[in-house]
Amino acid sequence: MFRYFLGAALACLPLVAANAQSANFCRNTFTPNEPIESQFMGLEYALVMHVLAEKYCGVETRPMRPRFLGYIEKGGCNPGTEIYTDVEAAIAKMEAASLRSLAQGENPKLAMSNGEVQEWASAAMKELGGCDVLKRAHGAELGQ
User: Fold this and answer.
1) Judging by beta carbons within 10 Å of its beta carbon (0-12, 13-18, 19+), is residue 28 exposed, middle or buried?
2) Could you list the pLDDT tens digit for every one of the 144 residues in the chain?
3) Which helix (DSSP H) or strand (DSSP E) does residue 10 occupy?
4) Helical ranges in 20-130 per DSSP H
5) What's the predicted TM-score (pTM) here?
């Protein structure tokens, strides 16, 4: 009897393996209790740091697409994947952003004076380590 059970279990093994899926690490939405891949966590902060370095600290403008999308591609996520599409949209938003729109965040109707915008930028810059840190991060390769 045991031999028949073992034979049936071994016969089903190829079917189970054929239906198994590898983890999809090229997305940034997860279901409850699903393991989270942290490879691309922090890219939003890196984008904000990049923009603050240019728009507040006066660093020379450097294109974001090759840097950030190249990093995602090196991680195995090609155009069309969820993470690639989301970061591409975030880059487009950041490239068009002013300090005021960054300070306003998701609320463009938020009335802010120039002083309040500068105060926000100064506080954000200090929170992220200061202009020296932002300048070094701006020039560094991702993943270092």
Assistant:
1) middle
2) 445 444 555 555 554 444 444 456 787 666 787 776 677 778 888 898 999 999 999 999 999 999 999 999 998 899 998 889 999 999 999 988 889 988 888 788 888 999 999 999 999 999 999 999 999 988 888 765
3) helix 2-19
4) 43-55, 64, 70-74, 82-96, 99-104, 114-127
5) 0.72
